[in-house]
């Protein structure tokens, strides 16, 4: 296991940038895009792509681990059934037994409170800004809405239409970090801009 995932209590070790995969937006083969993002400095990746058959998804996860392991990176898998580190949708049941690290997607105060009560290690709170990647979750929160809701949950990542220029305000609003899908999938070199802003 990566040292990033060595303790469920040590949330300070959670990376500030979490890259979320979406092969439909990727600039090339997903493993190549993730490798380029890792070369640019990314150290945590959430394998989303839930529509893949289980065997294809397992093979892709193994491929991404070979990219992340040499740099001490963290691979998180979306959905119940993963091991090590998993990320749950808002309505998914909490896994038993508990994986080493567990995060949950949240879009409301009630969902953040649930994530905290369950002992989640992190939450995504979205959408911060309007984005085609996160349709159907109500109006965008904006930085003020994020700041209002964020204290209700565990360490929280801002997700949804977040660019590097948005990062300072979101950190001031209490974000642990940012989760990014579309911009990194389309141009993995932008990881450097996010990391510079997060620093």
TrEMBL record:
GO terms for molecular function: thiamine-phosphate diphosphorylase activity. CDD domains: TMP_TenI (cd00564). SUPFAM superfamilies: Thiamin phosphate synthase. Gene3D superfamilies: Aldolase class I. It holds the Pfam family TMP-TENI. Pathway: Cofactor biosynthesis; thiamine diphosphate biosynthesis. GO terms for biological process: thiamine biosynthetic process. Residues 17-182 form the Thiamine phosphate synthase/TenI domain. It comes from the Bacteria. One of its GO terms (cellular component) is cytoplasm. The keyword Transmembrane helix does not apply. Keywords: Thiamine biosynthesis. Condenses 4-methyl-5-(beta-hydroxyethyl)thiazole monophosphate (THZ-P) and 2-methyl-4-amino-5-hydroxymethyl pyrimidine pyrophosphate (HMP-PP) to form thiamine monophosphate (TMP). PANTHER family: THIAMINE-PHOSPHATE PYROPHOSPHORYLASE, THIAMINE-PHOSPHATE SYNTHASE. This is Thiamine monophosphate synthase. It comes from Geodermatophilus obscurus (strain ATCC 25078 / DSM 43160 / JCM 3152 / CCUG 61914 / KCC A-0152 / KCTC 9177 / NBRC 13315 / NRRL B-3577 / G-20).
């Amino acid at each position: 296991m990566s040292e990033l995932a060595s303790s469920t209590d040590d949330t300070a070790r959670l990376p500030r940038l979490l890259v979320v995969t979406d092969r439909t937006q990727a600039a090339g083969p997903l493993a190549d895009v993730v490798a380029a993002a890792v070369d640019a400095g990314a150290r945590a990746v959430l394998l989303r792509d839930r529509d893949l058959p289980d065997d294809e998804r397992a093979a892709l996860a193994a491929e991404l681990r070979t990219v992340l392991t040499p740099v001490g990176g963290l691979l998180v898998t979306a959905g119940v059934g993963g091991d090590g580190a998993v990320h749950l949708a808002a309505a998914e049941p909490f896994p038993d037994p508990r994986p080493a690290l567990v995060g949950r997607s949240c879009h409301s105060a009630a969902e953040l409170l649930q994530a905290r009560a369950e002992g989640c290690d992190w939450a995504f709170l979205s959408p911060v800004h309007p984005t085609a990647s996160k349709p159907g979750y109500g109006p965008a929160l904006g930085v003020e809405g994020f700041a209002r809701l964020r204290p209700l949950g565990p360490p929280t990542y801002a997700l949804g239409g977040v660019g590097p220029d948005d990062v300072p305000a979101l950190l001031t609003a209490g974000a642990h970090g940012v989760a990014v899908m579309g911009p990194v999938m389309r141009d993995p070199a932008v990881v450097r801009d996010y990391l510079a802003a997060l620093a």
